[in-house]
Amino acid sequence: MILIKTKKEIDYIRESCQIVAEVLQLLKNYIKPGVTTLELDRMAEDYILSNNARAAFKGYSQVGSFDFPGSICSSVDDEVVHGIPGNRVLNEGEIISIDVGVEKNGFYGDAALTVAVGNISDEKKKLMEVTEKSLYLAIEEARPGNRIGDIGYAVQSYVESFGYSVVRDLCGHGVGKHLHEDPQIPNYGKKGSGSLLKNGMTLAIEPMINLGTHKVFVDEDGWTVKTMDGKPSAHFEHTIAIIDGKPEILTKC
Q: Per the annotation, does 129 bind a ligand?
């Protein structure tokens, strides 16, 4: 069931989303060669706690795996999403996706961005640019009267025109009263298909785009999703609310 939020509920979601946005900007400015993903994780958790909020990912459980141990997901190069923070040292030329979820006052925000570690190849720069652009094209489709398929079509048609592929095993989702709510929001689809979009919906839209094949697998750690061919992947995400006939980005810093 797709939950329609009241103005007051959206205000609570907006507060959690603002913390998410601030964490992402904080980490973005700190990412450089030599930093470990665990350092980023601790920095994020400290900031979230200082705002009387909770890291929504920490302790999150899914079938067949242990509870997620990190406050953020840190996914490097061929890691698509759900990378576990640890002693991994970031190296010049890598790209890293940072995904942050926050819960405050019982409401959730969720967003992600991909950041260059030092100087990166033109190939990786283009992948990041196209993926981020596809996110904003998708957000523009999140209007009453459109459908979920319009969001997915916007992502797919744009990124595939550059020869990239859309991850199909993972998708965006509703968010707000819970970290993951209906509807699921694939990054591919047909115009005019899927659930009808309405005012009061709050959605996490998150293109996950691979340089090579769309095929992925879950690493032996039980969480980290990686590209099957070992080529890099980029990931950008915003939580949005549909208000007065148009999308508002809640996780914009």
A: no
